[in-house]
Amino acid sequence: MESTVQRERFAALLDEAAQVSDQGELHGVLESLVDIAMGLTGAKYGALGVVGSHGFLIDFIHRGIDKETAEAISHLPLGLGVLGSITRGDTVRTDAIASHPDSSGVPDKHPPMNSFLGVPLRTRDEVFGNIYLTDKPGGFTEEDQATIETLSLIAGSAVANVRIHRRLREAAVAEDRARIARDVHDDIIQDLFAVGLSLQGLADSLEDESDGATVRTQVERVDDCITSLRQFIFNLRQPATHMRDLEIEVSELVEELAEPYSAEVEVAVDSMADGFTNDVADAVLHIIKEATSNALRHSGSSLVRVLVTGGFSNLSVSVIDRGVGFDPNRQHEGMGLTNLRQRAVDVGGELAVKSGGNGTTVTLVLPIG
Questions:
Q1: By the 8 A CB rule, do 296 and 238 touch?
Q2: How far apart are CA 265 and CA 254, in angstroms?
Q3: Model's pTM, two decimal places?
Q4: What is the mean pLDDT of residues 316-335?
Q5: Does domain 246-367 have CATH number 3.10.450.50?
Q6: Is the domain covering 2-161 a CATH 3.30.450.40 domain?
Q7: Is the pLDDT of residue 74 over 50?
């Protein structure tokens, strides 16, 4: 009975994947995919990771681990080790993950795991992530592998649908902007120009100089309105996707901040993190500037990492050091944590600060879609 229910959910997932059109829907489909994969194979744990252009995980869905355990784990997987093998396009099936030649261990406080099945997620020839399952009693079978490989094709189809819908929406927006610009120019500006000419003629014909001056003032106001509308048309004719390039701005900012210090600073900005508005981009840069400066000045770490990633459901900004750490619940003069949290709130996001003997991680998570 349970197997029949799972296969019915499998069929429903296929329908959802064919209809998904935006990031929010996609995230829900991928969550369902993990649940169904666990049900069909009997795995105790399941997860799905999305990989950015820099090779690190940018979005992560997990099942089977309770909230308290998940929060105690030192950090999410980075997409290295066995996960890196999957991301390169290899399916991995083993009864003992720790003995796999690519194994690099697990984060602190992570539950021990033995049997493992990991399958890459693809859209055509591009690997965009992986789905993996662990701890099936008796180990995973060839049938399990075939099942999960089929699910991976469904995930790829859903991602491809979202990308197609995004391109179509961008094209529609660009077309609308061009149409509005034409209408404003051809109708409104031409009408205002005709009104201005008529008012100017009226002013020249009036015998009372004060009346003429009053009309000429109105002509100037019409001219000002025409100038403003022409600027409006110019802005409309800019590409709809003409937004901030975070990769360039973050790299330049961090390079400038790091110059006086001996610490090495690594920057990774995922391509999916581009295309945000000025308010969001400004907040991201401010948080990176404050958090990176703190790490360089106070942590004593020889390496600081700055990651900006765009997942299916959020934008994430992380500044990570492996320095001395501090207690984020106490006031620290010069740390600017209050300002950072307020910046995050202003753009609808949340700021998390984790610090201790292993260093400090400052993370901004901003929902999108």
A1: no
A2: 8
A3: 0.57
A4: 76
A5: no
A6: yes
A7: no
